């Protein structure tokens, strides 16, 4: 999950889905891939901008999977050279978090982990579940829209207010993923 920035006065405005977000993800993912080289295992587009048809803060979320935390640490200077702030774990043990802003607006969150970190599965399950369950995705979109009106300049309150909904969706996503895997195993 995205952690609020240290300064919680960032805008929480959500906007309609923009198909250009996918191209922005691909362009930045190529840059990150060049930085990590052989240490890169995968890069995934995650977060609300990766779910077609829902409203989102226009911040591209990445899940970067590297061969080791040490490789991520070694890439910190190169990520900074690309314009990312190096944020450390930011409350999630094992994560290396990088952010990019355009002025006061957050534009990119790079959640980086070593292969096997359980947070990878958690983030990707959430994305995949919402892509496969449009009714839940739309409920999430409506909640975000309501909370953005309620907390227009308070990212911390916005994030905290949606956490119970997200945790319930993560629970459903885990059950859905396990059920899908069990069904495939029975064929």
Task: Give a structural overview.
Residues 1-7 have low confidence and may be disordered. The chain is globular and about 40 Å long. With 187 residues, the protein is α+β, with helices and mostly antiparallel strands. A five-stranded mixed sheet has the order 1-2-5-4-3, with helices on both faces. Helix 4 crosses helix 6 and helix 5 (134-150) runs antiparallel to helix 6 (155-185). The termini are far apart. The protein contains six helices and five strands, in the order H-E-E-H-H-E-E-E-H-H-H.
Describe the SSE topology.
Blueprint: H1 20-36, E1 40-46, E2 60-66, H2 69-74, H3 76-81, E3 85-86, E4 96-102, E5 105-114, H4 118-132, H5 134-150, H6 155-185
Parallel strand pairs: 2-5
Antiparallel strand pairs: 1-2, 3-4, 4-5
Helix pairs in contact: 4-6, 5-6
Task: Please work out how many helical segments DSSP would assign.
Answer: 6
Strand order across the largest sheet: 1-2-5-4-3
The main pleated sheet reads as: 5 strands, mixed
Rg value = 16 Å
Basic shape? globular
At a glance:
The protein has six helices and five strands, in the order αββααβββααα. With 187 residues, the protein is an alpha+beta fold.
Keywords:
single chain, 187 residues, alpha+beta, 6 helices, 49% helix, 18% strand
């Amino acid at each position: 999950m995205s952690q609020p920035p240290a300064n919680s006065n960032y805008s929480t405005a959500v906007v309609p889905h923009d198909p250009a977000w996918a191209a922005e993800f691909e362009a930045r993912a190529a840059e990150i891939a060049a930085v990590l080289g052989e240490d890169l295992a995968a890069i995934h587009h995650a977060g609300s901008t990766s779910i077609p048809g829902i409203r989102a803060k226009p911040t591209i979320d990445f899940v970067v999977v590297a061969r080791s935390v040490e490789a991520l640490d070694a890439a910190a200077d190169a990520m900074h050279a690309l314009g990312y702030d190096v944020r450390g774990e930011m409350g999630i043990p094992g994560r290396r978090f990088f952010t990019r802003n355009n002025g006061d607006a957050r534009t990119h969150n790079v959640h980086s982990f070593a292969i096997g970190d359980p947070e990878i599965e958690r983030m990707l399950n959430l994305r995949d579940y919402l892509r496969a369950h449009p009714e839940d995705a739309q409920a999430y979109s409506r909640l975000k829209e309501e909370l953005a009106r309620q907390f227009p300049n308070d990212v911390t309150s916005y994030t905290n207010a949606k956490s119970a909904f997200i945790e319930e969706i993560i629970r459903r996503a885990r059950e859905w993923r396990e059920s899908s895997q069990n069904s495939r195993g029975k064929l």
